[in-house]
From TrEMBL:
<dbReference type="InterPro" id="IPR009081">
    <property type="entry name" value="PP-bd_ACP"/>
</dbReference>
<protein>
    <recommendedName>
        <fullName>Carrier domain-containing protein</fullName>
    </recommendedName>
</protein>
<feature type="domain" description="Carrier">
    <location>
        <begin position="12"/>
        <end position="87"/>
    </location>
</feature>
<dbReference type="Pfam" id="PF00550">
    <property type="entry name" value="PP-binding"/>
</dbReference>
<dbReference type="InterPro" id="IPR036736">
    <property type="entry name" value="ACP-like_sf"/>
</dbReference>
Length: 89
């Protein structure tokens, strides 16, 4: 499999899956979702939101993220890069 194609496919899959989790499970508005959105200040994430998001990411993408890694993400873009990197590893 060609690595760049996989990388692009992973990025699209991660973006769509995170979008679905945020809209469907965390009930956020699609208009709020952009890579620079601050997870806490803009999107209102709290410990329950992070726990729900991590569980859904694990269930839907098969990626287990550490609490420290997730809490280090300030923006939605940071979270997308973290998940994409974990999938590509």
């Amino acid at each position: 499999m060609n690595r760049p194609e996989r990388s692009g496919a992973v990025t699209v899959t991660v973006e769509q899956t995170l979008h679905d989790i945020l809209v469907d499970d965390l009930e956020l508005s699609p208009e709020e979702l952009h890579p620079d959105a601050d997870l806490v200040a803009d999107l209102g994430f709290d410990s329950l939101s992070f726990a729900t998001g991590v569980a859904e990411i694990r269930d839907r993408l098969g990626v287990t993220l550490t609490k420290d890694a997730v809490f280090s993400c300030r923006t939605l873009g940071d979270l997308q890069r973290l998940v994409s990197g974990a999938l590509a590893a």
